[in-house]
Amino acid sequence: MDSNPETENQSARQGSLGLALPLVGVIVVVLGIILLLKRNRDEAAEHTYAEPNQPSDSGDQIIWGNFFNPSNRVTYLQGEESRAAVVHASVDTGTNSNVRRADYAGSASCQECHADKYRDWTSHAHRWMNAMAVPENVKGDFSGNKSISYQGGIGTFYQEKNEYRMHTERSDRTRTYHVTRTIGSRFFQYYVGTLLESSGQEPTEMREVEHVLPFGFWIDEGEWVPTVHIFREPDTEHTAVDSFAGERIVHYDIGCSRCHTTWPYGDWMITSSGNQRLSFYSPRSVTIEARRYIESEHPNLVTMRNSDTPGTLDDYAALVKRIEGQPYKDHRVALGITCEACHNGSKEHVANSTRTNTTVLPYFSPVHPLVHSEAEDFDSLVKKSDGNVNMICGRCHSGGRPVYANGTHTWNSTEFADGVQGYCYKRKPGSHSSSPTLTCVHCHDPHKTTGPKWQRTPQQDDQGCIECHQQFATADAVEAHTHHQANGTGSHCMNCHMPKINEGLQYMVRTHRIFNPTDSAMIEANQPNACNLCHLDKPIDWTINHLREWYGEHHRYAESKIFRNYPHRDQPVGREWLNSAHNATRIAAAEAMATSDPRRWLPELIEFMTEDTHLVNRQFIQRRLDAALGIKLREKGFQFYMTKEQRREVMARIKPGLEVAAERNRR
Length: 667
Known about the structure:
Elements: H1 5-13, H2 17-46, E1 56-58, E2 61-64, E3 74-77, H3 83-88, H4 115-122, E4 131-132, E5 147-150, E6 153-160, E7 163-170, E8 173-183, E9 188-198, H5 204-208, E10 211-212, E11 215-218, E12 223-226, H6 257-260, E13 261-262, H7 265-270, H8 272-281, E14 286-289, H9 290-297, H10 313-324, H11 328-331, E15 334-335, H12 339-343, H13 347-351, E16 371-373, H14 378-382, H15 386-394, H16 415-419, H17 458-466, H18 475-482, H19 493-497, E17 502-503, E18 508-509, H20 520-524, H21 530-534, H22 540-551, H23 559-565, H24 573-578, H25 583-596, H26 602-611, H27 615-629, H28 644-666
Parallel strand pairs: 3-14
Antiparallel strand pairs: 1-2, 2-3, 4-8, 5-6, 6-7, 7-8, 8-9, 9-10, 9-11, 11-12, 13-15, 14-16, 17-18
């Protein structure tokens, strides 16, 4: 029988006075168990990632499921057994192709006809996600004048023989790296390279494989910082990668570079990352004759069986790994995210176009004689449709990250994966209202970089929502819906439906999952809800009562979960979140405090800066406090990447000065 929250509420609050004293001991034990289970559960959630799509192996086919429509399937055909049926069910694309490396013209070929878009692209963050380490691309300070003290060692950065060097030194190990490439250009720039020299025995791959180096440059702050999120483990004080003697590396061209580099679409479809993303988000059923494609494009790598004996899943996986490990210089289209990363191979378009006319437009869907897609006709397959546009973005802005209780990812780069879980994307026909399916370009101009800050005003964002949700076009309708003054903070669509709970690069940003403040999973788990991100000082019962009063008594929350997950139920939710075992909940709360009223929450934020175990959390809040108090904590001797003991010592010394600065700014 389902539990009734109201009945649970009564039971929890009633009891026999005569039994009260004998039960005290039992209650203490039970509460202790509950809190222990809660902490274990939250700590487990800290390491939870979204489950990847999983294939089935059926005869000569590897078949993947689809997120939007169960009838859509992406199939990797390895033999000939099923080919005839596949071809019969697919659109005839003739000899057209836009997926081979030879099909790509290069971004420079776009400039003559599309000068404005080309100019926008050259300053776009996409362009600089992966670039050679040459003076015009490097933003870090390699003058030799700046260093970083971290984990008991020192990192220094300089130039030698017109090349860039990163040198790390600690009592147990000295290393010098050759910096070969850069990652990013907007907030941070990380570096890729190989080991040149070391005082110790090192794995051979550190010298031979280009990998992500231990320190990056924080552009806005002009300082060197530890790299984060390179491995899946959280960057806590107990799990942080050893930047000086650690031997684990991330092979850049097998990992991050799959999105930071423009791949031939056909090769990308074959990779482990590509086949999952294509299958999960494809707007239609697609079959790739994988073995024949690989034989055609990579004959030197083929190790599978002959044409009438399909290879096993293990054979295929080994071959995919070889394709992923090929050198980028000879097998990728270009470093960075180029025009054809989105428009696909467009050599035919370039060859058949002038400044004023074209007879061949770029195809917005993969086309090749060995790629078979189900669609009404050729035009509907390749046109600029909602499904095709979203798939372009979904190719990279998806994947696995740590998640909140409702499945929303906690940090950036998975915007599409979050978006399609929300209310404005149609998962399958008839699953939502008749409103148009949302596309990424509804809010984002793909040719223009976002820049350091989101450029649109809240009012402009609201209008973007009202284009579909016309029922909220008037101020009266907005107030009736939000129960806040029209055009106020509490009435802007995104504040309630896309709150800032996603870890960006130097501050929290909006989640791309559009969901309601009434979300039961988040509220029951004591994780961020839109109401308390503004009303940090209110207890959870205040929030629940308002939600049920405003949006209906049918919004019910399991009292047993509320009781278990809110040990200090009558306390401000903001403080509850700040002490959560769930890392993302803590940083969302701290950011909300630091941006809404940092002086009011200064004691909590000082403790957070001192005690929180996650380096990124402290980094974000140090930047926020610097801005709020008009100071630079690092100039006072405090750095977010210090050890806890160091942080405690420095904070005890500078805390009175911070309080004075807060009072001064209050006036």
